[in-house]
Amino acid sequence: MNPLPGWRAAFRIARRDAVRAKGRSALVVAMIALPVLGVTSADLAYRSAMPTKAKELTARLGAADARFSATSMGPVKLQQMPDGGAWGTPEGAPEPTPKEQEKPVDVTAAFPEGSRYLTERTVPASVTTRHGIADTQITELSIADPLLRGRIELTDGAYPRARDEIAATEEFIASAGLSIGDRVTVRGPDLAYTLTGAVELPADLKADSLYAVPGSVIAPWQKTADRDKNVLPPQASAPDWLVQAPPGAGVTWKDVLAANDKGVLVVSREVVLDPPPDSEVPMAAMMGGSYNDTEKALTAATLTVAAMAVLEIVLLAGPAFAVGARRSRRQLGLVGSCGGSRGQVRAVVLAGGAVLGGVGAVVGVGAGFGLTALFRPLIEEYAGSRFGELTVRPWEILGIALLGLVTGVLAALAPAIVAGRQSVLESLTGRRGTRRGSRVLPVVGVIALVAGVAVAVYGGMNGDTNFVAGGSVLAELGVLGCIPVIVGFLGRLGRRLPLTPRIALRDAARNRGRTAPAVAAVMAAVAGSIAIATYTSSNAAEQAYDYTPNMTPGTAALMAADTGDHAELPRSRAAVEQNLPVSGGRADIGRVWAGSDCTVYYEEENGCGTLELVKPTGKGHSCPLKGKGAKELALRISADEHKRLMNSPACMDENYTMVAFGTDEHKIVIGGADVLASYVKLADPAAAKAIAEGTPVLLNSAYAQGGEVTLKATHVYNPRDKKNRALHPGKARTTTDRLKVYVAPDRFAATPGIRMVMPERTAERLGLHVEENGSFYTLGREATDAENQAVQAALDQAGNRAYLMTSDEMLRENDDTDTILLILAIFAGVVTLGAAAITTGLSKADAEADLTTLSAVGAPPGVRRSLSGFQCLVVALTGVVLGTAAGLVPAVALRLTDLRAALADMREDPMESAYTPIVMPWETIGLLAVVVPVLAGLLAAGLTSSRLTLTRRAG
C-alpha cells in the first residue's frame, strides 16, 4: 500500500491547522527559529571572523607575494619551515662568528628576478596630541601603494605622499583627539608632520600607530641625534621587504630555499597556502606535533552542544504542539471516526511538526543571515577585526536548517503518541482519560543522575573533558526523568496556601504532562547558563588571584628620573596635581642607601655601599616552597594547603620580587604615616603613631624576630664621592643594627615594591643617606587617555625630570566577564519567560471547564488572572531551582579538570599557583531565581483576561 496519499492528507490538514491557529503556529515557529537563528549567526560570524591562513597572510603581506627579512646571524645558510615560524642554521653547522654576524645581508639579491618591492621599518616614538603627549609606534611604509591593500585601508582623508605628511589609525586619532589637517610633532628630534588621513588595519582594529613614507622619520631623526647629543637616536627595527614577483610567477619554495642559502628568511603566500611535502623541507625532521587530540575534544564539545540545543528546542516546542493537539481533539476524533487509524492520527500531528519545523528552519536561517549582515560592524568591532567577506559554508547552513526541521518533528513526537492513544469518543466529547504516571521513569532518572554525576566527577578528576561532557548530559537527562515526580510533590505543598496558589500547585501536579516539559525547558536553559556563568566567574576569580599588581589599586607614583632630579619635583608635582583626578593629599617618599650611591658609582667594582634587610631562617621566615625539599613537599600537600603557604609572608616575599620607587633589593622607602594611608592602605592608628615616634613599619613579618629586624649596611665610599665621604670619614665599615619595628598584619606583605617604611630621622641616626625621590597620590578614578597625555605634556614642560607610574588595574579588570554573565542571564530569562508562557497557555486550554465551575460558584473574576500568574510562577521557579542544581555538575567537573592540571604544574614548580576556586555567580542566580519568576508571574497575570463567558458543560 502506498503511504504517500495518507501523508499527503496529513500535511494538508497540518498546513490548514497551522494557518487557522496563527498565534500558536507563530509561537512554535519562533521557538524553532530562534535557536536556528542563533546557530546560523554564530556559524557565519565564527567562519567569517576566524583567522584563516589566507587572512593571516593578507594581514602580514597585503597584496604582496612574500615578505623577505634578514636575521642577526649574518649572511649564513639558514633553514626554515614553510610558514617561516621556525628557522635556524642547519643541524651540525658551526655557529657564526661575531665577525660573520656583523656582515650585512644583501636581501634584495634574494628576490626573484623582475620583482618589485616596498621597505618597512618601525620605530617607537613620543608624539604630540591635542591633549598633550602620547607614546606610539611609527611605521615607515608606502601605504598608498596598491601592494598594501587588504592590510591597511584608508577610511578618511588621503594617504601620506610627501615627507612632511603622516597618517594615523582611527584608534590613535580618537585617543589623541586629533583631526585631519592637524600637526603632529615627534618629540626629541622635533620633526613636524601634517596628519593627512585616517587608516585602519582590517586584521587589528585596535591598532594604535602612525604611518609615514620611507625616509621621512628615522633618517632625519638619526641626523638630528648625530648633531645634538641631547637627542636620543631612534631605536628602529631592522627593515623588512614586501615583494611582488613578476605576474604569474609568485615566490616558490625553490625561491625560499635559494634565499635561505643567502641568510634571508621568507614568508611566501604561495608556500604557506600550498606547503611542500616534508621530504622537500630540510628542517621538517627537527619538527613534529599532532593536533588530533585537540580536534577530537573540539568535536566532542560541538556534538554535546548540538545535542543539548536539540533537547532545548524539543522541550520548548513540545508543549506548544501539545496545546495544538488538545485544541484539535475534535478534528483528530473526526479523522478516527472516518476510519483513520491511530497511525494516521499520529501522522497529522507529526506533519504539523514537520510543517512548522520547516518554516521555522527557513525563517531562522534567513533571519540569521539578515541579522549577521545588519550587526556585522558591531561584531567586527567586538572581535577587533574585519570579516573581509561573509564566509558561508553551504553544508553547514543546510545542516542547521535540517536540525530545525528534525527538532520540529521530534517536538511533535510525544503529543502525536498521546493523540494516537486517545479514543474517538474522548476526542469527540472533549473528555480526558486518566493515566497513571510511569513508575519506571523516575527510577531510571535517579540512576542516570547518579551515574552522570559520577562520570562527570571522574572525568574532572582525570582531566578527561569528554567524560565531563557526557556525564553532564547524562545527569541533566536524569533530572529530566525525575521532574514528573518533583512536579507531583509540589501539589502537596499547597495545603495551607491561599486558594489561587493552592489551585496552581495542584493543577501543575495533576497535569504533569504539560507542566513537566515546560519545567524541563526552563531547567535546560538555566542549567547551561549557570554552568557557563559558574565556570566564567570561577576562572575570573582565579585570574584575579594570580594577578600580580605593579602598585596598590587606585594610586599613582611620581618618581625622580635620576639622582639629583629631586630639586625639580615641585614643578612635576604641580603637573600631576593639575591634570590627574587626584583625591586627597600627596605622600612624599625618599630613598635610602649606605656608603656611596650605587646608582651613581656603579661602574667601579666595590665602589659603592650596600644596604640589606636580613631575613632570619627557620619556620615562619623561610618559604618551604623554595629550595631544598620543596618538590617533595609539593607532592604531599593539597591545593588549599599550598594556597595557605603561598599567602604566608615568607613565600610572598619570594613571589613579589618587584623593585621600584628608587629602592634596591631591600625595598625600604623613607616616609611617614601619609605613605601608610595613601599607598599601603594601612589605616591603623597604632602604625601611624609608631612611625611618628621614629619606629619603622615592617610590612613583611617574615623579616621580624621578637619585634625587631636586622639591618646590615656596608659603608663603602668611592674616592670621587667627596660630599658623602666628608660626612663619614674613616675606613670602610660594616654595621649591623637591630631595630624595633611595628609589624603590620600579614596581608600587607603583598604590598608592591615596599617591604618597610622608615622615618627619615631613623635613617639618619643609623648613618644612612636619604634623598627625596617622589610622591604617592590617591586617584579618585582611572585616568582617561586625554588626562594621561596632558600629564605627560606637563611633565615634559616641567623639564622631564620625573616619570609617572600608575596602577595597572585596567589590565587586570576583565569587562567581558560581566558582559558574558549578563548575556547568559538574559538568555535564560527569555527562555524561562517563553516556557512559562507556553505552559500557561496550555493550562488555560485544559482548565476552561474548571474555571467555568469556579465562576459559577461565585469566584471573583480576578481569580482567573491570579491563577495564570501563579501557574507561570510555579513553572519558572521550579525550573530555575532545578536548572541551577543541574548546571553546577559540569561547572564543578570542569573546575576539577583545571585543578588537576594546576596541581601538576605546582608539583613541577612549587611556586606555581594551584588555586582553582569554584565561585558561584550569585548575581546571575538571584536574577534568575527571584526577578525572572516574579516577572513571569506578573506578565502572565497582566496579559490574562479576567472575563469568562459561561458555557454549557459537555456531558
Helix content, binned percent: 40-55%
Tell me, briefly, the overall form.
globular
Query: Which structural class best describes the helix and strand composition?
Result: alpha+beta
Distance N terminus to C terminus? 40 Å
Number of strands: 23
Structure at a glance:
With 955 residues, the protein is of the alpha+beta class.
Could you walk me through the main structural features you see in this protein, from its secondary elements to its overall organization?
Helices cover 52% and strands 13% of the residues. The protein is built from 32 helices and 23 strands. With 955 residues, it is an alpha+beta fold. Strands 1, 4, 5, 6, 7, 8, 9, 10, 11 and 12 form a ten-stranded mixed beta sheet that branches. Helix 2 runs antiparallel to helix 9, helix 9 (292-327) packs parallel to helix 29 (815-846) and helix 19 runs antiparallel to helix 27.
Jot down its keywords.
955 residues, alpha+beta, ten-stranded mixed sheet, four-stranded antiparallel sheet, 32 helices, 13% strand
